[in-house]
Amino acid sequence: MSRRRHSDESDAGSQPHKRRRTSEPIEIEDRLESLICRVGEKSTSSLESNLEGLAGVLEADLPNYKSKILRILCAVARILPEKLTVYTTLVGLLNARNYNFGGEFVEAMIRQLKETLKSNLYSEALYLVRFLSDLVNCHVIAAPSMVAMFENFVSVTQEEDIPQVRSDWYVYAVLSSLPWVGKELYEKKDVEMDRLLNQIEGYLKRRQKTHVPMLQVWTAEKPHPQEEYLDCLWAQVQKLKKDRWQERHILRPYIAFDSVLCEALQHNLPPFTPPAHSDDAVYPMPHVVFRMFDYTDAPEGPVMPGSHSVERFVIEENLHCIIKSHWRERKTCAAQLLSYPGKNKIPLNYHIVEVIFGELFQLPGPPHIDVMYTALLIELCKLQPGSLPQVLAQATEMMYMRLDTMNTTCIDRLINWFSHHLSNFQFRWSWDDWADCLTQDIEKPKPKFVKEVLEKCMRLSYHQRIVDIVPPSFTALIPANPVCSYKYGDEADSSLPGLAMTTTVGNAIKNRASNEEILIVLKDVPNPNQDDDDDEGDGFNPLKIEVFLQTLLHLAAKSFSHSFSALAKFHEVLKTLTDSDEGKLHILRVLYEFWRNHPQMISVLVDKLIRTQIVDCAAVANWIFSPEMAHDFTRFYVWEILHSTIRKMNKHVQKIQKELDEAKVKLEKQQNKKQRDSGDEEDMEKNSEDEEGQLEEQIERLQEKVESAQSEQKNLFLVIFQRFIMLLTEHLVRCETSGIDINTTWYKNCIERLQQIFLMHHVIIQQYMGTLENLLFTAELDHHILTVYQQFCALHL
């Protein structure tokens, strides 16, 4: 990595001399970026010699490319946190050679920190704080000024009328930097550091933790406590302090350059005041530290660090950083995880599996799309076929054993992951090991989990394949053959209402009748809700819907595509039949009755009915909570439908809101242009006024649409929460009257589904908290239900 080689490479190529000279700066800039980004990766030379060589290259290029080098170094500090100490050492070497550059870099980092905090980029800001703190070890920043900055951070806990999550972030930023810099700061400023830690301890003792139960993956504290993240980190820092700040895991390349770095002049950080709290600030939500393994689970090889050792924090933090940096490229991400520095000193596979599941099960939602974790684990199994699949199987077995206390939302994600994973490995699994679930009630977590996994596997395969892969003893848990249930079939009772009409309707559909012709045919269907002597009415006729929809779905039952085409072709008929709220509810009942053995078909057709506006979102919510659906209420697919419905409603509101915002911006630009061109001709002014008028009308229309959509959205959440409260209250009263324990399997599922709604849609629900509090979650409500709402409110306090 010598300067000579760098220059030689940039001169390579046979382009004409003039062309090369114009592109040379760009080539050199690209090469600088490549050299900086790739330092610390696998190389035949040692890391120290690579760093020294790169520092020489950059020093020589500073006169011409200083701003570019500053920009790249600031960027890698923010986006490649797993190589933190590599880059702090590089900056240290550059500072030792060029003091002014060191000063400019520190100033640039402080500017960047202020920008990231103002832009709500808190995870990036965290990496920048950690980077600055490690520069103390490299003799770039003076220890007293770093302590002063930490004191300013901790002073945020004394601010009034601010959310707890703001104070949490600043305390976490300080505590999470101490594994890197605690020793150095304590040696230089022990009194100040003791005072700082005492302030933090006081804050941690008084902060409220109502939110914790809502965020725990397991409700049981055994075998591993599920600790709140700040409490866990505080315990780790306390142990580190007790061990005299000695940790044995962070790679510290600057130690090799100590003789050079200790001669360098240090910079003082400029006084840093945390930006004031603003209402539009979005602080990171609290989380619970996921624990699945300890040293007893990895009996062979290196010992796993204890849950309160700081090494556990550092390893997990670095693995999270690798996933954050490379999650879009599963192959690169898997390779980077497996080539983790110091992997021979730790049971790396266990750490990787625990961190991946920790992210997948994170509440309210994982940091990345769920399917990424499946793809990453498959890639890891391919790269380490001799060891990683065994650890993954062990983890799956452990999670299966702990299903009774596992959060329902996390069980959903486990079902999705496990079924998808099995589909990539010929659905091979030692099912007999789970035979204990066969003797339990079908609604208990273990048999329910196996049943839902097999149902998901069937979506990724076909029914007979599932029958073939599981032992005969598991027959009771195999999903039903996904065939339709046509009530007007050959075996139908001749006295069944509407039976005679189905032939007429079926022939009309086969003969390609128009929507109008079908509606004329359906006029002959009697209305069971009306007496014979009533005047003919166009009100809700359930039999009409049953006859038409059962016949239509039966004729189109061959595939998803056939069903989609049928619904699209007779959209007008369906809209007419579902004119009332009862009609919308009944069409969903008929759809469920017809496809009761095919949950996937129900899901996609309900989705289609919402998209084509045949039914609305509130109707779907009312249908899910209706008595007819009680039998399937705890099934996974029902909640997939409900969450999909809520997401559609939210996207609809966002889309109209975006259109409104764009129209307002356009009008503002138009008005500004008019002011600038005020001295121009009258014609232009008239045209401008016409355009403004049109835009104002458009904004008015969009404003009405937004208000209407938001009202619909609020109503959807009110319907859902009201139904939850009714169901749960009935259960609690029934249990109290009969003197039975309220904590049934159904109750756990229902209360955790209520939590799930709050967590998965927390950003939207926050807007309507006032309404919810006034109308539904009042002080008179049973405390079991009210606690869930209070936990939700505490997430953002």
UniProtKB/TrEMBL annotation:
Domain MIF4G intervals: 29-241
Cited InterPro entries: ARM-type_fold (IPR016024), CBP80 (IPR027159), MIF4G-like_typ-1 (IPR015172), MIF4G-like_typ-2 (IPR015174), MIF4G-like_typ-3 (IPR003890)
UniProt biased composition (Acidic residues): 679-697
Protein name, as recorded: Nuclear cap binding protein subunit 1
Region (Disordered): 1-25, 667-702
Basic and acidic residues bias (residue ranges): 667-678
PANTHER family xref list: CAP BINDING PROTEIN, NUCLEAR CAP-BINDING PROTEIN SUBUNIT 1
GO biological process per UniProt: 7-methylguanosine mRNA capping; mRNA export from nucleus; nuclear-transcribed mRNA catabolic process, nonsense-mediated decay; regulation of mRNA processing; regulation of translation; regulatory ncRNA-mediated gene silencing; RNA splicing
Subcellular location: Cytoplasm; Nucleus
Family per similarity comment: Belongs to the NCBP1 family.
Alphabetical keyword list: Coiled coil, Cytoplasm, mRNA capping, mRNA processing, mRNA splicing, mRNA transport, Nonsense-mediated mRNA decay, Nucleus, RNA-mediated gene silencing, Translation regulation, Transport
Main location: cytoplasm
GO function terms (MF aspect): mRNA binding; RNA cap binding
Assigned GO CC terms: cytoplasm; nuclear cap binding complex; nucleus
